[in-house]
Design goal:
alpha/beta, Metallo-beta-lactamase, Chain A, 7-stranded mixed beta sheet, 5-stranded mixed beta sheet, about 35% helix, about 20% strand, globular
């Protein structure tokens, strides 16, 4: 049931408030703003759903994000084709970033709908590269990185056995795409949607902001309850993705406070600035906790216990190690910890007494 009036600006809010009580059923859409429909598709993980968006675009639609490549998601799309979308064309498919719940069915949808894919360059290249990685070189490199940061043999073996899990949840990506860039305006049904590029969670994640509708499609950059994963990748083992993520939050915080935020998980909400403040505080607290934990030199694997208070399976370990490493690399970049490589080839991080 709708609990907010999305045709009028929301009042100033000091905290996150949800705009709806219930999500749409699979294969249906719920109109959350004029001409903007909320779709929900299943995921086979602990995080069991993704929100997708359907924008009325003249006599057709623009699709934002695709869902993962599984039969039940294709079935939900087919129900939409014969229901809400019946008799109307699709002008384009936009993928906010390369992660499989956002890009997994891009190839299938663009082919059956005869529609172009719109995406940032880094995201299309990354997704296409990982799909083409038939022998799992990227996943092997990630396992090797985690070995250097102290992960034990049993969990390394579990990760190695997964191989290229990414490739298994994608249809073949389109061989061409239409590049979108920071600040570009996508005209949809006479309204401009401005591309705001976020980094850290993904290389070049595209958020879409429509001032006319006071709506932000935030993708994974801003979620109402959980913090999006910010991981160190083996492709850039000396990077500082957390700095990029925090900088992206600062830019999104300049949007109006009354904007309706459409996230990829959980519920549409109001309170963008409050949520950004909470996310920044969350990371600041984690960084302080990590720096304190490193009063005794620690490997990244030894920091998992202070970063995550739950039991982690092989799927979660991949994200957890990446997240711990991104925070440690940020602490190193700020001079709060110092990294040492031992005779065993393992990296350990120690608090920098000069910064205490």
């Amino acid at each position: 049931m709708h609990t907010g009036n999305n045709t009028q600006p929301a009042p100033h809010r000091l905290a996150v408030t949800y705009a709806f009580d219930d999500p749409p059923e699979e294969g249906t859409g719920l109109e959350v703003a004029p001409g903007v429909f909320w779709l929900r598709m299943p995921l086979p993980f602990a995080l069991d759903h993704i929100n997708l968006w359907l924008l009325e675009d003249g006599e057709g639609f623009t699709i934002v994000d695709t869902g993962i490549a599984r039969d039940e998601v294709k079935s939900a799309w087919r129900t939409l084709f014969s229901g809400l979308m019946s008799g109307r064309s699709v002008k384009r498919v936009v993928s906010t970033h390369f992660h499989p719940d956002h890009f997994g069915l891009a190839g299938w949808l663009t082919e059956i709908l005869d529609a172009p894919l719109w995406m940032t360059r880094s995201e299309w290249l990354t997704g296409s590269m990982l799909f083409a990685d038939a022998d799992g070189r990227a996943s092997k490199a990630q396992v090797a990185l985690f070995r250097k940061h102290g992960l034990d043999d049993a969990r390394l073996q579990a990760l190695a056995e997964r191989g290229n899990a990414y490739r298994r949840v994608l249809t073949t990506p389109p061989s061409s795409y239409r590049r979108i860039v920071e600040g570009e305006r996508l005209t949809v049904d006479g309204c401009d949607w401005t591309v705001i590029v976020g980094r850290g969670h993904a290389p070049e994640h595209a958020c879409l902001y429509c001032a006319d509708k006071s709506v932000l499609i935030s993708g994974d950059q801003v979620l109402p309850k959980i913090s999006p994963n910010v991981s160190l990748s083996a492709t850039e083992p000396e990077a500082d993705p957390l700095s990029e993520y925090l900088e992206s939050l600062d830019r999104l915080a300049t949007l109006p406070e009354d904007v309706l935020v459409l996230p990829s998980h959980d519920f549409p909400f109001y309170g963008l600035c409050a949520r950004i403040k909470a996310l920044k505080n969350h990371h600041a607290e984690r960084l302080d906790r990590l720096a304190d934990h490193c009063q005794t030199p620690r490997t990244a694997a030894e920091t998992l216990e202070v970063m995550f208070r739950r039991r982690l399976d092989a799927h979660q370990i991949m994200f957890a190690m990446g997240e711990s490493l991104s925070h440690l690399m940020h602490l190193e970049a700020k001079g709060r910890v110092v990294r040492h490589i031992g005779a065993d080839g393992i990296s350990r991080f120690a608090a920098n007494s000069a910064k205490a």
